[in-house]
Design brief:
By secondary structure, this protein is α/β, with parallel strands linked by helices. It is built from ten helices and 19 strands. The chain folds into three domains: 126 residues, no CATH class; 79 residues, Pdz3 Domain (Roll); 185 residues, 2-enoyl-CoA Hydratase, Chain A, domain 1, CATH 3.90.226.10. It is globular, with a radius of gyration of 21 Å.
């Protein structure tokens, strides 16, 4: 999709709106063609609206359905007759003339599972994700879209981009892209105009033609010192590159301890389960449990040891509807263990362990394969993390460059520093 998405997979991620918890320990299931980290298979190229296209659609559709039936963590598919749905939709999906139409039909099928971590990735979308992770330019409108349930809102408009030139505003709801909901929209093509319909806070609709241009990806990490010697860090993923950055930042905190620490997870869509726990361990001087998974093949409790020089000062975490997957487990466990005050809005409630499985056309399907709880038994799926101090979104303030949630986080950190009753 052409709209830049943060928080993500997944969401769902849930990276790209849907950031995903990875699990690498299924020794009994090595015959499953799981996605290999850092390896992007070439797409199978066929002519649009051709017999070859229909045959490829059929192979890919049947493979995707088969893997969902074999791997999805809920054997009853949450009461859905998934096999019946798949059979009823098969002919229409196979008849789609191109990749975009086919993946729109396939995504509509898996959307019926009502699971944020089960989603499709077309070959084109996989290439865009890989390009973004590598820091390469990719087509975009210049607006960052934030999920709020199944809806998508403009959370940021980058200057000197098609979105800013068209007058797109922070807080506008994205209703459709080329006539379909944004979560089903096809990836943008450079130079190809797309019709985007927005709904503003007054209920007025704005139909805008946006032509994507190559844009540099936004930074996935941020670290700075705020007034009062408060450290602020933001990171959008739990992957190896981000974890290396995270470790380096905590080494700096150990060398020059701040008065307090704010961790901003509002755009964190998750990533590796192991790295989520390893990251959390930097806030403790003891071994901690950080998650429990239950699946078709294996159940497991996850533990992480404390690093040599953890940060043990006061911590406030900021969360919101863009916090998903590991971006929810991390604050939930910190909250459960009394290690941090959580500020902001309720998180997405998308905390299921998943894996990506390769498809015959070079695409992939991510499938929820593990249920997950906190060590204390709290299930976050469809519930999310409820902040200790709620802060509702204020689009007007954000348009003016103010950040009410950050202001509240600073106030809560000051309370932690002063202590109770003083």
């Amino acid at each position: 999709m052409s709209i830049e998405r943060r928080g993500s997979a997944w969401m769902s991620g849930w990276r790209n709106g849907l950031a995903v918890l990875a699990f690498a320990g299924l020794a009994a299931c090595q015959s499953i063609p799981y996605e290999r980290t850092g390896v992007l298979p070439p797409p199978v190229v066929v002519a649009d609206a051709s017999p070859d296209r229909a045959a490829l659609n059929a192979r890919t559709y049947d493979a995707a359905v088969g893997w969902v039936e074999k791997l999805f963590y809920a054997k009853d598919f949450h009461g859905l007759d998934f096999a019946g749905e798949a059979a009823a939709r098969r002919a229409e999906a196979i008849a789609q003339p191109d990749e975009a139409g086919f993946y729109g039909a396939l995504e509509a099928l898996v959307d019926r599972l009502d699971d944020d971590h089960t989603q499709t990735l077309s070959p084109t979308r996989r290439e865009r994700i890989a390009a973004g992770e590598a820091g390469d330019r990719r087509p975009g409108y210049g607006m960052v879209m934030m999920p709020r349930g199944d809806d998508r809102y403009v959370a940021r408009v980058r200057p000197d981009t098609p979105a800013s030139a068209a007058g797109v505003q922070v807080g506008w709801k994205v209703e459709t892209v080329n006539g379909v909901p944004p979560r089903f929209a096809s990836p943008a093509q450079e130079g190809k105009a797309d019709t985007v319909v927005f709904l503003d806070e007054t209920g007025e609709r704005h139909t805008v033609e946006l032509t994507p241009v190559p844009l540099d990806p936004l930074p996935r990490t941020e670290a700075r010192r705020l007034e009062g010697d408060i450290a602020y860090i933001r990171f959008d993923d739990f992957d190896r590159e981000t974890y290396d950055w995270y470790k380096a930042e905590f080494a700096r905190l150990a060398d020059a301890p701040p008065a307090g620490l704010i961790i901003d997870l509002r755009t964190n869509g998750g990533g590796s389960l192991a790295l989520t726990g390893m990251s959390l361990s930097w806030l403790f001087d003891r071994e901690i449990d950080f998650g429990v998974t239950t699946g078709r093949f294996i159940n497991r409790r996850y533990t992480s040891e404390s690093p040599d020089r953890p940060y043990l000062g006061p911590v406030v975490m900021i969360v919101g509807p863009g916090s998903a997957s590991g971006g929810e487990l991390y604050p939930a466990v910190a909250q459960e263990l009394g290690r941090a005050v959580i500020v902001g809005e309720r998180t997405r409630g998308a905390v299921i362990g998943s894996r990506a499985v390769e498809l015959p056309d070079g695409g992939a399907i991510r499938i929820g394969i593990f249920d997950m709880t906190t060590p204390g038994g709290a299930r976050l799926e469809k519930v999310g993390v409820i902040p200790d101090v709620p802060v509702d979104v204020d689009w007007g303030a954000l348009r003016e460059g103010r950040d009410p949630a950050l202001a509240v986080a600073l106030a809560e950190l000051e309370k932690l520093r002063i202590g109770p009753g003083l």
